[in-house]
Description:
By secondary structure, this protein is an all-alpha fold. The chain contains 7 helices and 2 strands.
Amino acid sequence: MGRKTKYNPKAVETICQAIADGVPYRFAAALGGISYETFRAWQRDKPAFSDAITLALAKGIQSRLQNMQKFGKKGNLKADMWWLSHVLPEHFAGNRVEIREQPVEPSPPIMTPPDEPVTSISPAHVKMILKKFFELNPEEAIDL
């Protein structure tokens, strides 16, 4: 007979509340009395748990957005903006860079500022930039 499972409503509630409060998954799992590996297994194997985690994260997002609306007029947004940009960078980070596997059209010369912010760069372009950077002589150094 196997070991008794730690999966119970109290553990799930503790973990979900911690996630809604902004605690990273690894530490939310510890607060619920389980390892991070168990947390990931529950997420994979227990659809109700996975749904509860998604809902908790959504509540955390909603809470921060409400705070931003409430306190935005007072200029007190930094903590909530930080949380949103670090927990969900794909939705809230303004300065992320995507690296694609497929080549993209060549960008303008390195010394010419682009008309638009760089949002993606291919690995081949990164190699070209690094090669040019390390080939510069001290006399050719640029003031930034």
